[in-house]
Amino acid sequence: MGELGYREGVDFKFEFVFAANVESFAEGYRTLISRGVDIVLATGPEVALQAAVANAGSRPIVMVAIDACNRATCPSRAI
Predict the structure, then answer these.
(1) Where does residue 36 fall: left (phi above 0), alpha (psi -120 to 50 degrees), or beta otherwise?
(2) What is the reported pLDDT for 69?
């Protein structure tokens, strides 16, 4: 962002919420939404992405899916 001329704390800020377990994903996203975020970054397993969708309302969501099955661990499923 800095290379594009944006300054953290002036033009944008990052808000973080840690979810200790699967059951706390939804509460974490509700916390972020209550802070007035404009965009949600959702990372983790599918249940985390589902919690983001369920709580983000009309806000855009950037999703980063993490799949533990890769070429090394599941060669038959590798893309």
Answers:
(1) left
(2) 63
| Dist. CA 17–CA 52, nearest whole Å | 12
Higher-scoring residue by pLDDT: 21, 67? 21
Round to whole Å and give the CA distance between 73 and 48. 22
Whether the per-residue pLDDT at 13 is higher than 70: the answer is: yes
- Cβ 29 vs Cβ 55: under 8 Å: yes
Distance of CA 42 to the CA centre of its chain: 1
Beta bridge partners of 65: 44
Task: Give the whole-angstrom CA distance, residue 73 versus residue 65.
Answer: 17
What single-letter amino acid sits at 68? A
What does pTM read for this prediction?
A: 0.70
Other beta carbons within 10 Å of 52: 24
Q: Parallel, antiparallel, or unpaired: how do β-strands 40-44 and 61-65 relate? A: parallel
